[in-house]
């Protein structure tokens, strides 16, 4: 029987205010895809427009960068030296030891101007990746998994397929469509990778900007980066209320991820793209990485299967 989706449109304005600190000063055009590598115990993130994969240790020392000749939406670790990457034209495996990229699948069947955007692995290591169109007013985006050597479509007609995550019990999948300002919960079957109908939807108010990337904590709360919202906000998916707000001195907050030695550090990425000279003067740390130290940890990154 189909479930009726519950729609939440209210927030608590007295959200607990938290602060962020600069982790690495940078000038990324579109910083995204942060993650804590479960084997190497270090941070990785991408600059989508510059096509770069960056690496840093837990103390914020930048260790290395890897350049691609295409836009790089996400890079998910498959081992100590391999990543499954969502490039602008397809899904590929990148070897850090050889520098070579081998394609798994292309997205030539999608609309002109589509590219991979955000992606993650689910608790079983299944790769999930969403697409978007350069014309963000269209709904040409899709959400895929890579299974059995082919792409499997789960959601379509998306504006910008963005943040995604799973509840601690692995029974709920969360997905953000940025232009719609929605955070949608779906029932999830970890064995088959199938999604059920939406169970509830949070509509983010225009005053908070656009929901972008997301991380889920061990208590099931959703930490959502807000593009043009100057913050990461912690949403309760059951009530639709904002519990905490991490202020970031940059308008375009793009994503976040839990990690660090105790798993309670939240790494936050930001962007410079589209900001005016005046905005960049007012917010010169746009494009840098920030951290917030929290009292809760997050769901660990699972190595990607390909």
TrEMBL record:
<dbReference type="InterPro" id="IPR013658">
    <property type="entry name" value="SGL"/>
</dbReference>
<feature type="binding site">
    <location>
        <position position="32"/>
    </location>
    <ligand>
        <name>a divalent metal cation</name>
    </ligand>
</feature>
<feature type="binding site">
    <location>
        <position position="115"/>
    </location>
    <ligand>
        <name>substrate</name>
    </ligand>
</feature>
<feature type="active site" description="Proton donor/acceptor">
    <location>
        <position position="212"/>
    </location>
</feature>
<protein>
    <submittedName>
        <fullName>Sugar lactone lactonase YvrE</fullName>
    </submittedName>
</protein>
<dbReference type="GO" id="GO:0004341">
    <property type="term" value="F:gluconolactonase activity"/>
</dbReference>
<keyword id="KW-0862">Zinc</keyword>
<feature type="binding site">
    <location>
        <position position="212"/>
    </location>
    <ligand>
        <name>a divalent metal cation</name>
    </ligand>
</feature>
<dbReference type="GO" id="GO:0005509">
    <property type="term" value="F:calcium ion binding"/>
</dbReference>
<dbReference type="GO" id="GO:0019853">
    <property type="term" value="P:L-ascorbic acid biosynthetic process"/>
</dbReference>
<feature type="binding site">
    <location>
        <position position="162"/>
    </location>
    <ligand>
        <name>a divalent metal cation</name>
    </ligand>
</feature>
<keyword id="KW-0479">Metal-binding</keyword>
<comment type="similarity">
    <text>Belongs to the SMP-30/CGR1 family.</text>
</comment>
<feature type="domain" description="SMP-30/Gluconolactonase/LRE-like region">
    <location>
        <begin position="30"/>
        <end position="272"/>
    </location>
</feature>
<dbReference type="InterPro" id="IPR005511">
    <property type="entry name" value="SMP-30"/>
</dbReference>
<dbReference type="InterPro" id="IPR011042">
    <property type="entry name" value="6-blade_b-propeller_TolB-like"/>
</dbReference>
<feature type="binding site">
    <location>
        <position position="117"/>
    </location>
    <ligand>
        <name>substrate</name>
    </ligand>
</feature>
<dbReference type="Pfam" id="PF08450">
    <property type="entry name" value="SGL"/>
</dbReference>
<feature type="binding site">
    <location>
        <position position="135"/>
    </location>
    <ligand>
        <name>substrate</name>
    </ligand>
</feature>
């Amino acid at each position: 029987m189909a479930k009726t989706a519950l729609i939440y449109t209210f927030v608590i304005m007295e959200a607990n205010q938290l602060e962020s600190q600069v982790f690495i000063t940078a000038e990324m055009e579109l910083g995204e895809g942060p993650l804590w590598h479960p084997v190497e115990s270090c941070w990785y993130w991408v600059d989508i427009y510059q096509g770069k994969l960056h690496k840093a240790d837990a103390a914020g020392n930048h260790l290395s960068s890897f350049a691609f000749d295409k836009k790089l939406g996400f890079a998910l670790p498959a081992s100590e030296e391999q990543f499954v990457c969502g490039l602008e034209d397809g899904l590929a495996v990148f070897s850090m030891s050889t520098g070579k990229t081998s394609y798994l699948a292309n997205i030539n069947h999608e609309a002109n101007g589509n590219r991979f955007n955000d992606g993650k692995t689910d608790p079983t290591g299944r790769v999930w990746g969403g697409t978007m169109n350069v014309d963000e007013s269209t709904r040409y985006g899709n959400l895929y998994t890579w299974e059995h050597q082919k792409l499997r479509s789960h959601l379509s007609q998306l504006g910008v397929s963005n943040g995604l995550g799973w509840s601690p019990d692995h029974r709920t999948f969360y997905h953000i469509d940025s232009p719609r300002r929605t955070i949608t919960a779906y029932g999830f079957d970890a064995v088959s990778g199938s999604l059920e109908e939406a169970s509830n939807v949070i509509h983010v108010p225009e005053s908070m900007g656009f929901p972008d990337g997301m991380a889920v904590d061990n208590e099931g709360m959703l930490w959502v980066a807000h593009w043009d919202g100057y913050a990461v906000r912690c949403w309760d998916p059951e009530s639709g209320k904002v519990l905490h707000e991490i202020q970031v001195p940059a308008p375009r907050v793009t994503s976040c991820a839990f990690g660090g030695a105790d798993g309670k550090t939240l790494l936050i990425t930001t962007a410079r793209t589209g900001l005016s000279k005046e905005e960049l003067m007012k917010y010169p740390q746009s494009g840098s990485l920030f951290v917030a130290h929290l009292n809760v940890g997050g769901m660990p990154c699972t190595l990607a299967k390909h």
